[in-house]
Amino acid sequence: MRVSFTVNGRPQEADDVWEGESLLYVLRERLGLPGSKNACEQGECGSCTVRLDGVPVCSCLVAAGQAEGREVVTVEGLADLAERRARRCAGGDGSGSCASGACGTSGAPLDEAPGVPAGDAWSRAARPQDSQAGGGGGLAPIQQAFIDAGAVQCGFCTPGLLVAADEMLERNPDPSDADIREALSGNLCRCTGYEKIMDAVRLAAARQAEEAAR
Amino acid sequence: MDFLRPASWEEALAAKAAHPGAVPIAGGTDVMVEINFDHRRPEHLLDLNRVEELGEWEADGDTVRLGASVPYTRIMEHLRGPLPGLALASHTVASPQIRNRGGVGGNLGTASPAGDAHPALLAAGAEVEVASVRGTRRIPIDDFYTGVKRNALAADELIRAVHVKRASGPQQFAKVGTRNAMVIAVCAFGLALHPDTRTVRTGIGSAAPTPVRARAAEDFLNAALEEDRLWDSGRAVPPSVAEEFAALCSAACNPIDDVRGTAGYRRHAVGVLARRTLTWTWEAYRGTGRAADERGGAA
């Protein structure tokens, strides 16, 4: 069957999809987006975490056909997502000032002045040389924070953690340690003992707050 | 394999009637695991995500009507007041990612004895609304679980909603596992005080072939609370009553030894959870002033 949906702001079509196939398989094997990792295939590890209509889910447990017509954001789209958020916070979409402070721009500097319609970000995202396949552009603040805090070892769990942490900081810009632990409780890391990951999320939250106060 | 995508409830029922072997998929958190691991190859997958009403709830009246696909996250966020036991149980389901997709309909459809929603639904006295092209019926939760991973659904029926009476008193849920997230219950226990009917109901998970109530324990406790006029006086439950209640809850278990725990451990742990949840709920009941009010009214 054919599945049509939006991935990281770009309309995508996948053909000859087997009816029992997961969204994860379609992303990795048919759309060339290997950022979301395939590990447990049973929702235990969170390494395949993506956002489905904004909500973090295990893409290994979403049937590909269930993504029809929906919007998916993978780790490859995090930088663009952060940029769009920053622009919205700057009032670019006419919605006024940022309510949550959940923008943050460090590591993903705005290359266009505030005031550009939000829709333009989507058309930018559809350009072939964008970060769709991780090939270009900057990093989302959460990605930069993971690097700066040394929260990446083997890296296999990192994409899922990034998507989950980014979504939490969007919802909850001032998380307690308990909030962070709960938000990341569905993401297993077997290298770090999680301390550096906690550091990274705290760092991203602090930078985001600094940015919002500016 | 065919992927059926009904856009409405009527279409979904028609599809299930035409293909009784079709496997409904909503959150996918059970079904996709079985497909990913080659444990299941249904001829038809029946995607319920486009049936919007399944993701909605009504909480205006005395009873909450909870759509089968309302994600656990929404239950935690929006229904903690009217459905405290189910909200607590929802919070113990797997991880945020799973709670964003999974719902009570899937728990009921799978009917695993370890499903987290079951003890809360049993304790609250829920009813399951199921339907087919032949019509709609409501199955009392006590009659819903018929065996290990078996339920009372006919082949052409789908789960549409659960109806749960708005809580009239404190409810609790407790679960034993090796950590706070991503845990399939070693055992679980739900308890609801129903001051409006002066009854207590229980639910036991993962300690019998199906989720079960501890009926003898309920009968004992209801009689003891009545005899000592504790609903009126708001006095503490005597330790001897709590102990006997716990022992009867343990006795209601019919567990097995498996990779998650032994039968003996489960039996013991259910007793501990029963005593704890009784203490928590009864202390909350005493703290509400409800007992004092009733005492004043009766004087």
Structure description:
Chain B: It comes from Streptomyces minutiscleroticus. Chain B: Pfam families: CO_deh_flav_C (PF03450), FAD_binding_5 (PF00941). Chain B: This is Carbon monoxide dehydrogenase. The complex is a heterodimer of chains A (214) and B (299). Chain A folds into two domains: 73 residues, Ubiquitin-like (UB roll) (Roll), CATH 3.10.20.30; 136 residues, DNA polymerase, domain 1 (Orthogonal Bundle), CATH 1.10.150. Chain A is 36% helix and 10% strand. Chain A has seven helices and five strands, in the order ββαβββαααααα. A five-stranded mixed beta sheet of chain A has the order 2-1-5-3-4, with helices on both faces. The relative contact order of chain A is 0.16. In chain B, α3 crosses α4. Chain B contains twelve helices and 13 strands. The radius of gyration of chain B is 20 Å and the shape is globular. Chain B has a five-stranded antiparallel beta sheet. A three-stranded parallel beta sheet of chain B has the order 1-3-2, covered by helices on one side. The C terminus of chain B is likely disordered. Chain B has 299 residues and is α+β, with helices and mostly antiparallel strands. Chain B has two domains: 110 residues, Uridine Diphospho-n-acetylenolpyruvylglucosamine Reductase, domain 3, CATH 3.30.465; 128 residues, CO dehydrogenase flavoprotein, C-terminal domain (Enolase-like, domain 1). At the A-B interface, β4 of A face α2 and α5 of B.
Which key features would you list for this structure?
A: 214 residues; alpha+beta; Ubiquitin-like (UB roll); DNA polymerase, domain 1; 2 domains; 36% helix; B: 299 residues; Uridine Diphospho-n-acetylenolpyruvylglucosamine Reductase, domain 3; Enolase-like, domain 1; five-stranded antiparallel beta sheet; three-stranded parallel beta sheet; 12 helices; disordered C terminus
SSE layout:
The complex is a heterodimer of chains A (214) and B (299).
Chain A: E1 3-7, E2 10-14, H1 23-30, E3 49-52, E4 55-58, E5 71-73, H2 78-89, H3 118-125, H4 141-148, H5 158-171, H6 177-183, H7 195-213
Parallel strand pairs in A: 1-5
Antiparallel strand pairs in A: 1-2, 3-4, 3-5
Helix pairs in contact in A: 2-3, 4-7
Chain B: E1 2-4, H1 9-18, E2 23-25, H2 31-36, E3 44-47, E4 57-58, E5 63-67, H3 72-78, H4 84-91, H5 96-99, H6 104-110, H7 117-124, E6 127-132, E7 135-140, E8 145-147, E9 150-151, E10 158-165, E11 171-176, E12 187-194, E13 199-205, H8 215-227, H9 230-233, H10 239-251, H11 263-287, H12 290-298
Parallel strand pairs in B: 1-3, 2-3
Antiparallel strand pairs in B: 4-5, 5-10, 6-7, 6-10, 8-9, 11-12, 12-13
Helix pairs in contact in B: 3-4, 4-7, 8-10, 10-11
Keywords (chain A): 2Fe-2S, Iron, Iron-sulfur, Metal-binding, Oxidoreductase
Organism (chain A): Streptomyces minutiscleroticus
InterPro entries (chain A): 2Fe-2S-bd (IPR002888), 2Fe-2S-bd_dom_sf (IPR036884), 2Fe-2S_ferredoxin-like_sf (IPR036010), 2Fe-2S_ferredoxin-type (IPR001041), 2Fe2S_fd_BS (IPR006058), Beta-grasp_dom_sf (IPR012675), Diverse_Oxidoreductases (IPR051452)
